[in-house]
Amino acid sequence: MILLSIVANCFQSLRRNMSNTMLSIIISISLLSSCMGIGEVIWAVNCGGEAHTDINGIRYQEDKLPVGISSDYGKSLVIQRVVPQDQILYQTERYHVNSFGYDVPLTKDGDYVLVLKFSEVWFTTANQKVFDVVLNGDHIVVHELDIFGKVGKGVAHDEVVPFEISDGKCKVNGETSDIQDGILTVEFVKGELDNPKINAMYIMRGTIEDVPKLPPLQGADAMEEEEEEDEEVLNDSKQKPSRRPSGPKVTDPYSTDDTSTMLLPVIIAVAAFIPLLYCLCKL
Predict the structure, then answer these.
(1) Which residues, in sequence order, are CB contacts of 200 under 8 Å at separation 6+?
(2) Residue 249 pLDDT grade (very low, low, confident, very high; cuts 50, 70, 90)
(3) Integer CA distances (angstroms), 128 to 38, 124, 151, 262, in order
(4) Which of 115, 117, 120, 116 minimizes the C-alpha distance to 130?
(5) 184, part of any domain
(6) Which stretches does DSSP call E strand in the chain?
(7) Is 127 contained in some domain?
């Protein structure tokens, strides 16, 4: 019995170790496949900050743009929707009192994606900082961006813009423009409100499906479900007055006119009296 107990314990221990090993292998394969799904990053910069490699292996170069003002004021905040080791991408930024931009060397044909990373670290209300993003000098790819209006303060927000390069031309949103000297420009255009800015950005060869996504906003799913439930209730309330029971229409027994029931005995009595009167006349 003791021998059997020892064998059983050894078997359970072996089984447990194999389960843990398999779990580790599955997690590793999942992480590896996730990394392998990322497209080829052509160019990346941590705007207003130093070089950084994120959890997806994307290497952001140090920002050396001579135009505008670099700031790390966002380091005083904990940025939501992003892991701690990558918060630096949303804590540093470059802004300018006028429009400014970056030049990206891009010559190979193919499908590309521009990923723009933003977070509002200063304003606490919407409609304070609103600006456009223009690609290749002609295409407004982000119109009137209000970071706080979209996600609030201290929250990561990405704008993902797919485009195509073909025969020296840039094609985006059904529009086409010529690329000058193999340089693609990404501009942040000042509007009537506060200064335009950018926290980090990169250009990837691939499609939108190849871009790592931020996790959803907290409570966003619950709000959507609540809106769907409200819509269903509203639709039900609208449909109730028009609902009709199925099957043939049943005659209401109480809708018969009372006068018809009163005349029936009179008619029967008259009909019976006429033959009787005829017989009396014969006598």
Answers:
(1) 44, 45, 46, 47, 49, 60, 89, 90, 92, 117
(2) very low
(3) 35, 9, 14, 83
(4) 120
(5) yes
(6) 40-46, 52-53, 59-62, 69-71, 93-95, 100-105, 110-118, 131-135, 139-145, 157-166, 169-172, 175-178, 183-190, 197-198, 200-205
(7) yes
**Contacts with 159 (C-beta within 8 Å, 6 or more apart), sequence order:** 115, 116, 118, 133, 141, 142, 145
Domain assignment present for 123 = yes
Domains in the chain: how many in total? 1
Query: Can you spell out the DSSP letters for 203-260?
Result: EEES-GGGSPPPPPPTTHHHHHHHHHHHHHHHHHHHHGGG---SSPPPPPGGGS-HHH
Quote the tokens at residue 213: 């996504």
Please name the residue that has the structure tokens 């409200």: 230
pTM score, two decimals?
0.66
Cβ partners under 8 Å of residue 198, min gap 6 = 47, 93, 94, 95, 116, 117, 118, 188
- Rounded to 5 degrees, what angle do the CA atoms 106, 91, 73 make? 125
Domain extent for 212: 37-216
With 60 as the cut, is the pLDDT of residue 111 above it? Answer: yes
**53 is written with which tokens?**
């490699």
- CA dist 58 and 43 (Å) reads 9
- Kindly state whether residue 119 falls inside one of the protein's structural domains: yes
Residues 6+ positions from 80 with CB-CB distance below 8 Å: 154, 155, 156, 218
68: domain CATH number is 2.60.120.430
Average pLDDT, the chain: 78
Q: Identify the pLDDT of residue 219.
A: 67
